[in-house]
Amino acid sequence: MKLLALDTSEQAMSVAVMEDATLLAETTLNRRMKDHSEQLLPTIESLLAASGLGADDIDRFVVAAGPGSYTGLRIAVTTAKTFASTLHKELVGVSSLAALAAGERHTSELIVALMDARRGNVFAGGYQWTDDGRLKTVIADRHLALTEVLAQIAALGQLTVFTGPDALSMRETIVEQLGSLARFADPVSALPRASRLGALGRVAAPVADIDAFVPRYLRLTEAETTWLKTHQETGHEPYVEKV
Amino acid sequence: MAERELILAFESSCDETSVAVIENGETILSNIIATQINSHKRFGGVVPEVASRHHVEQITECIDLAMAEAEVTFDELTAVAVTYGPGLVGSLLIGVTAAKVVAFAHHLPLIPVNHLAGHIYAARFVKPLVYPLLALVVSGGHTELVTVSAPGEFAIIGDTRDDAAGEAYDKIGRVLGISYPAGKQVDAMAHQGKDTFDFPRAMDQEDNLDFSFSGLKSAFINTVHHADQLGQTLDKNDLAASFQAAVTDVLTHKTIKALQQYPVQQLIVAGGVAANQGLKEKLTAALAEAFPNVDVIVPPLRLTGDNAAMIGAAAHIELAKGHFADATLNAVPGLDLPQASEA
Ligand SMILES: [Zn+2]
Asked: What are the binding positions for Fe cation in this chain (chain B) (predicted)?
């Protein structure tokens, strides 16, 4: 199975072309020179060309579906679903946090991937490799205060490896709360790598309804949150209508 | 058999996700429009992040529907076209991203289209265009007088200094307790009332072709608040009629002034506010008198609002000129048409 994996969840952009478990080509850019919108498709084009493949040769498109930066998620998800939908190929969405956690391949400890969600909040997910090489979810992806996440982890009382570019910059707070239970991924492993994303996506079930596929934002918009304080979500006309 | 030119066009600059298939720049084979109005009604206006989220959930379904309704395959397409600005950046990005992927995946050239050019070329579905022509573009985001000297050659000769006309409608609509978007209901109320408040016609007497609607909006709001403080109730229909009279007077006068400076055979009234009955009536009456030989083209309702068919019509002109973009194409939220060079 030939597979294209793409991740623009945060600042870094990573794209990989794989054949089954074998990586054919990969690009990871971590210096934001241009918008993801400008560099994602050109990168896909050059990686496919370098792999000797056309877009139509890809059997499965694997996308980091969130959480992350809203605009970044939409660019990768729109790219992946448009490829899959118009070429009639498979689409797989993988948690952006799981993809980060998968960068820590050689540990049996709990791996917690973190992304800064501003104002003291984070997107966090806890994962662990099983003996048969699957990445299992220990703490489902969530949006909450960093201090709360750390309290939840402290309660588990086990060694924890923190990963993700933002986790490294939160090191002080993490160590303060967890002390010697906290370990950190090295800065290279902490970057999102589309090959790790692809490896997870290769063994996941494809999306049944590609059209309906959307990013996992894990957070409502501010406008909706405010509106829901005084309104009911039920019994409304469809929010979007074909006219 | 002559080969068909088939353009798959995308529009997602604001709160409509639209995909269309256009044949030879003049025939609409499909024009799927998914409108988010019911969603943004909750907030009294378009919330950009909500709009972007809806676009992602709609985009591939709209492509499927447009292709199916047009009964064409990707192999038969000539090119892909997309609005890349002006508009909301998060919204634009969905159409731009999807269009780029379709172009690359299906080996098609990609045509970037200015949204305003699209609004103007909606008129191409009414009849062939005769150049040079003049266009009045009025919508929630724009109030512009544009000359089109030849196919695809635009120059802005008049622009709003502050609010767009459609924006002013929405703002005073809120004061009248009308839910977003307010244009249609204000128009209907205006027809029930009289112009009794004599609101200011900003810049009407000035020599340029520019507009300003923020003073009118303030005058309207002050009038209503002042009456509220005195415990008076004003006739809402008269308020609507007075507001609409001020807007349509200025739009009409500036258009007449533009026609005096730029002799043309056709005037295109484009954009969402082109559907306004009050504007249509006043403009047609004024032109029948001052410029009986100028043909006024107002596209049908479905084509005056945001839609991808108009983008396909504009793209037909760009295709002939060989104006293409590559995979680096990005959304340009502040994109404008060229300004007329200083006289
Ligand atoms: Zn528009």
From this structure: 115, 119, 306
